[in-house]
Please model this.
Amino acid sequence: MICCIDCFNDKEVKAAIEMIGHRGNCPICGKLNTWIYDSDFDSDKSAVEDMLGSIIEIYVPESELPSIYPSSDKKTIAERLCGEWSIFSGSLDKVFKIVKGVVDNSLFLSEKILIEPVGIPQLYDEEYLLKYSIMRNHTWEEFKKSLRNVNRFHNDFINLELLREILKVAKITIPMGERFYRARVSNEKGSAGFKRREMWAPPDDIASPGRANSKGQSCLYLSNRKKTTVKEIRAHAFDYVTIATFKLIREINVLDLCSITHNSPFYADTNKVDYLINEQIMHAIERDLAKPMSRWDSELDYLPTQYISDFAKFCGYDGVRYYSTFDKDAYNIALFDSSACSCTYHRNFLVGDLEYKLYSV
Model:
């Protein structure tokens, strides 16, 4: 089997192929003079086939699946791999050629998966899901509905101990001295704006709900860019705004919600079924965290992200970091304990013209 670096999206597989140092022409995607993997010469030099085999082996041919396995979830191996992973960059037929090469060279992979539709039995094994899935035997959407409409404070949808362990890899430390910013619309105070003491997080009793806090829970929302703070508060043209600078007076441990998902299933020696089940859930959580909120959205729409943030607080994190929905290159921090920083500077501004972008719906 010969394939090349351009046959893959996965950064770990691409790196493994490039490290071989072998250039040539790829018969699968047609690229010329590129980094290639040739199983006849490179199998002892690289773990490429072992990496791919660790994914392929979780799929079971139809003839060996439990009788209760739903027919709607039985698909070809290429369809499953392309639909459930971001490993390959080619079309279904090109992916199939790579899989066939790996299976033909393997001593343990069954050739049945090349002929029959395949599935993953654990996806419908309730005992397995209860033990190894963050959401147990539920989906993220089911959890959100329960949180919103059924029982807000007590349910057993989430395996909290497993979630705690998975989130540990997203812990980051932000050093003392790092600067962040907060803005407030100050029209009622005119060009004089807010005083420095008024730029802190609102007191508990009057705190409004946000992406990371429930109503009545004080939380200091900061951004790493000044202009982003103005967008976050949805300031209008010719509004007066006060922007304050906050400086960390100690290092803080933050749950980085920007990186709860992973770019590769090969980042660690993890069980690939567990990875697949939980990575799909984490992607759903990440999408909700990045979802823009309009003025017409209900406060209830914040409940799922408030739940995750509240759990981070319970686990001892100082705050959560998440991408700005207004600036793709900026991020925000919701700081649970504002005593970790000091307000060092503030200034008043008049907002000039705004640039509007229209999207068809």
Summary: The mean pLDDT is 92.
